Amino acid sequence: MLDATRSPLHPSARATLLAALDAGWADPRRLHRDGRRARLLLDQARESVAASMGARPGEVSFHPSGAHALRLGVAGLRHARRRVGTRVLTTAVDQAVLLHEAHDADPGCVPIAVDRWGRVEPARVSSALHGPPVAAVAIQQANGEVGTTQPVDEIFAVCRAASVPLLVDATAALGRVAPPSGWDVLVGDAATVAGPPIGVLAVRTGTRFDVPGPRWEPEHGREPADPWVPLALAAAEAWRQVDHTRAAEEASARALVDRIRTAAAAVADVEVVGDPVDRLPHVVTFSALYVDGESLVDALDRRGVVVASGSACTSSRLEPSHVLAAMGALTHGNVRVTLPLEAVSPDRARDVDALCSALPDVVAELRGRLGVDGL
């Protein structure tokens, strides 16, 4: 399996989830013994996740998904600063959920352009901040489709100088690489570290943040209900495990992705996109001229190689990638690999070998059907 945007649970997270079904099933707001025990377990999960994020426990909240946490993060910043403005600056390679949130508030707000690697220059952010009033800036730590990392600390300095809060979308990176240090709001997704698909939102103490609508009690007033404690515990355990193995995991994944990049680049008219160095260790995308992504996915799947195609935000519909379009890269014939953790897929090196071996023949076969082989 080389498509781990969703993967099986980490073995330790799975064991934690099963154990928590008996220990943490109760409502953590109840005052009876089982409720108090559930509250203690939820607090422990929050402390563990906060440590992984470089945040304080009182800054972290749990949410139904990473996308939900992103939307809530934008909404909280925008509502708190509504007297300043409602404009949210994003880049052209951000997730669709962020682009939609920015466009809904201000249809005339144009995403900040990126270079051919998919990276935004801090100077472009600075220039955009000198336009109409801005409620917040939302930037990825790294792109989940092409792997390119963003200069988050430099952008944070630009935002700090302009007194504008920065939301960092770390849903593709948190746990796979070290967390960023410069942020006002940080968002992660436990699914990135083979945990359950539960989102986490951290809001730095002192940041103006106010979710619109009723004032709830759970999750620092950010959710109408508490998270299911077993899921929170499983998420915390997944992050705890990858924290212990991150250096070795990162080195191993980077070496495997380098092999894929080399094998793909050796095929005629195949473009490997994203920064080859400053990138996530486990993500790579390449595009093959003259063939379409769906055919590549199907042909590789018949050979036992599981990969993805299309936009990372809408891969089930295989829509052209807005990320690749923004980079000026080929938007068709693309294959996206997201390596699972070694703890989840101990045979992932074998799968990478299978992909590298099959790719030249698959591309040649598909081009031959179209009569373009050898062009």
What topology does this entry show?
Layout: H1 11-23, H2 33-53, E1 60-63, H3 66-80, E2 87-89, H4 96-105, H5 122-129, E3 134-140, H6 152-161, E4 166-169, E5 185-189, E6 199-203, H7 218-221, H8 229-265, E7 270-273, E8 283-288, H9 293-302, H10 322-327, E9 334-338, H11 348-370
Parallel strand pairs: 2-3, 3-4, 4-5
Antiparallel strand pairs: 1-6, 5-6, 7-8, 8-9
Task: Report what the structure shows.
- With 375 residues, the protein is an alpha/beta fold.
- Helix 2 runs parallel beside helix 8, helix 5 runs parallel beside helix 6 and helix 8 (229-265) crosses helix 11.
- The protein has two domains: 11-241, Type I PLP-dependent aspartate aminotransferase-like (Major domain) (Aspartate Aminotransferase, domain 2, 3-Layer(aba) Sandwich); 246-370, Aspartate Aminotransferase, domain 1, CATH 3.90.1150.
- Mean pLDDT is 91; it is low at 312-317.
- Strand 3 (134-140), helix 6 and strand 4 (166-169) form a beta-alpha-beta unit.
- 42% of the residues lie in helices and 11% in strands.
- The chain has helices at 11-23, 33-53, 66-80, 96-105, 122-129, 152-161, 218-221, 229-265, 293-302, 322-327, 348-370; strands at 60-63, 87-89, 134-140, 166-169, 185-189, 199-203, 270-273, 283-288, 334-338.
- A six-stranded mixed β-sheet has the order 1-6-5-4-3-2, sandwiched between helices. Strands 7-8-9 form a three-stranded antiparallel β-sheet.
